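REVIEWER CHECKLIST
Item 1: Sequence provided? yes
Item 2: Single chain? yes
Item 3: Sequence as submitted:
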Amino acid sequence: MVQRMSDRPSFLVFDIETVADGRLVQRVRFPDRPELTPAEAVALYREQLLAASGGKSDFVPHTFQVPVSIAIAKVAADSSLIEVRTLDRPKFRPQVITRSFWKGWEKHGKPTLVTFNGRFFDVPVLELCAYRYGLSVPDWFASTGPSYNQPRNRYNSQAHLDLQDLLGNSGAVHINGGLNLCAQLLGKPGKMGTKGDMVQQLWETGERERIDDYCMCDALDTYFTFLRCRVLQGFLTLEQEHTLVEGARGWIERQAQSNLAMAEYLRNFRFWQPTGDDDDPFVH
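Item 4: Structure as written out by the authors:
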């Protein structure tokens, strides 16, 4: 089958969901406690992290995390949505997910990766998992030529565009509210029934497809945030953005016929409406 130019992604807008590897946590953090089960090791480490942060966070560092879901929105050169898909459903094997991601990036001609906070979490997780699983990704780790052209250079947005980094002026400010805030400013669902801090428990109780569905919704929120950032940067007009959003909504409608998560996303979907000069500026 011949691939049409419009089907070739220029951007891979993606989101990942991860869980802590309890066996690794036990070996590294509690080597003198071999009796701990993986779940017990994670629970104990989270207790320690919560205490050390003064009750602020019990999130296990990315070095102990493995991906259990990756949702990828394939986006054409004109910023139109081609499709959104997840990897290795319904088995959700971290090694297969990691390999599929990097091989897919290469297969599609190394499109620009687009994330929200991916420079600080998603990509480092996938890099370290490539190390863990013995994968070779020479084009991503290329270190020849000018440093600004190297894919892993923080300011190389042609290789990786982190929308949080863009909106936060390369870390100068924190985007308090994160992707949820950015999506809701545009009338998109943002966080619904499932939230990121629930993923570890959902995984341990076997609700793996729920995690995958949640990841797909986050990828869509990231895509709509990406479109507005393209407007912000002058690559799209508001009229073009609206047309692209309508096209993406059509894709969601088709998926909603057989996917409950997409049906919920559609129920909470709104088109962004501009406010006039005399309107309340706080009404969106």
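Item 5: Key structural point noted by reviewer: The mean pLDDT is 93.
Item 6: Recommendation: ____
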